[in-house]
Amino acid sequence: MANPLSVFDIAGRAMSAQMVRLNTTASNLANAGSVSGTKESAFKALKPVFMPVTDRAGVATVKVSSILTSQNEAVKKHSPDHPLADANGDVWEANVDSAAEMVEMLETARAYQNNVQVLQTAKTLTLDTLRLGK
After folding, report:
1. Which residues are 78's β-sheet partners?
2. End-to-end alpha-carbon separation of the chain, Å?
3. What does the radius of gyration of the chain's CA atoms come to, in whole angstroms?
4. Cα–Cα distance between 29 and 96 in angstroms, integer?
5. Sheet-wide strand order for 75-78
6. Which of 10, 57, 60, 99 is deepest in the core (most CB within 10 A)?
7. Coil/strand/helix, residue 54
8. Which residues, including other chains, have CB under 8 Å from residue 32's CB and lie 6 or more apart?
9. Per-residue CA distances from 80 to 31, 36, 38, 40 (Å)
């Protein structure tokens, strides 16, 4: 990297990664319970993959390297009255575990808040250091 990472860069990049995580979780929750006429077209949960970004020994942050689609199968439900039902009267429900997604959302919010606190502490320490010179 051209410029060494500062605490502000590290926390900012971590917050960006957590926002991607939160957006995928929100997308998953928004599509929970959605149905489709075929197994292939049913919504599949999304999961971001984080990878470390190392500047130098002891200094690293994170970035989202990709967003994977869940390999879990859609859930087949018998609902012959549904407009999307196939010839057998089945629809396919998204493979989203709402409870697990809510836990993911809480963990993401806490991780984001931790980085906000890091930025606040760094800002306070910087301002206190500047005041020492007066």
Report:
1. 90
2. 35
3. 22
4. 7
5. 35-36, 90-93, 75-78
6. 10
7. strand
8. 94, 96, 98, 101
9. 21, 13, 14, 19
